[in-house]
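In the lab's daily routine, each protein ends up as an entry in a very long ledger. A line of letters takes care of the sequence, but it says nothing directly about the fold. The fold becomes a row of whole numbers, each drawn from a learned catalogue of backbone shapes. The protein below has been through that process, and both of its lines are reproduced in full:
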Amino acid sequence: MTDSLTRRRMLQLTGGAAVVGLAGCTGTQNNDGGTPTESGHDDSGTESGHSDEEDGHDEAVGAPSDAAEVNMITEDGGYHFEPHVVRVNVGGTVTWHNESGSHSTTAYHSDNDQPQLVPDGAAAWDSGIVSEQGATFEHTFETEGVYHYYCTPHESLGMIGSVIVGEPDPHEQVALEDPPADKPERVREKLEELNGMVSTALGDDHE
């Protein structure tokens, strides 16, 4: 395994303004930061967090780089990977930072008892539940292609992200096929949204 989990204290977080406007990963959270409810509604009966319509997942995906960073965030009852999609070169490393709450970054891979939504022959990763604020987890990507991953406690609430490695052919990516039929509707919807973002980043706007 090339993964390494390091725990460190970050400088005091400032405001969390960077997460405002990120959407699609909503739900309610228990006081202990644990398992959310499936309804995604607060005690008043109104939906908490942000809606997909509010931001439309318009964030731009840049060119591949040697390193990328993703924040794992709990805010206002919403659960987010920010940004939703990152892109690295083959051999590049993605580092996930736990900004708040308890989360994991876990590949859709048979080694994790999940459908394969990563390239053939690609290594799996699973951070386990990361609860300490400021803790990090990193994974180095040696195989070109598109990778989908999820947060184990919050997958059903749409906390799912994607990594593009290199310059893959979008028509040859397992991850960009129809989402697995045995997944809940919310998960399938989020995977379809991510597939659209990834296809746009790869210049494959066919809709």
The mean pLDDT is 79. The longest helix spans residues 185-201.
